[in-house]
Amino acid sequence: MLKTVAPGQLITVKAKVTALREAKTLQTSRGTLKMIEGQIVDPQGGTTITATEPHANILALAPTFTVSDDSMTTSVEGSVAGVISTSMYIACNKCNKKIQNDNSSEIITCNYCNMQQLAGLCPTQYYAQFFFLTTPKKDRLTLTLFNKVI
Questions:
Q1: What is the mean pLDDT of each run of 10 residues along the chain (150 residues)?
Q2: DSSP secondary structure string, 26-52?
Q3: 3-class SS at 24?
Q4: CB of 129 within 8 A of CB of 142?
């Protein structure tokens, strides 16, 4: 049943909130947003997925971000003071999302678009996090850079 859910489709989730983290403030091209991460569990102890009636009312939509090369531009001067981490992963040929390949299988399935594909033909994506100090204020930033920028 879960495989029939499409991105952007409205669904109803009944669960118990077991943990919430402190709200984070994010600056985006659409303004300041607050993000709260949490954890939910099924209070009944077993997960079942059943079809229900469509939502009758219009619900609030979560913001979606489409990032192009010029949509979010901020200029700062400074220097990279250190490398926090570097990593790589394989991505789906269709949707370009990260693929979890824990079982080292030759054929893998994307968790986002469900496309089955040969693991050896999936593109490798790289990213790195840098510790950046601005000048002259010495503000501390963590920069995450991906393939295009690296």
A1: 66 76 81 81 67 65 50 72 90 89 81 90 90 84 80
A2: EEETTEEEEE--EEEE-TTSS------
A3: strand
A4: yes
SS3 category, 23:
coil
Q: What angle do CA 105, 110, 116 make, to 5 degrees?
A: 65
pTM above 0.85, yes or no: no
CB burial string 127-142: b at 16+ within 10 A, e below: ebebebeeeeeeeeee
Q: Residue 70 corresponds to which tokens in the numbers above?
A: 């010029």
Q: Tell me the C-alpha distance between 59 and 57, whole Å.
A: 6
Which pLDDT belongs to residue 86? 92
- 93: buried, middle or exposed (CB in 10 Å: 19+, 13-18, 0-12)? middle
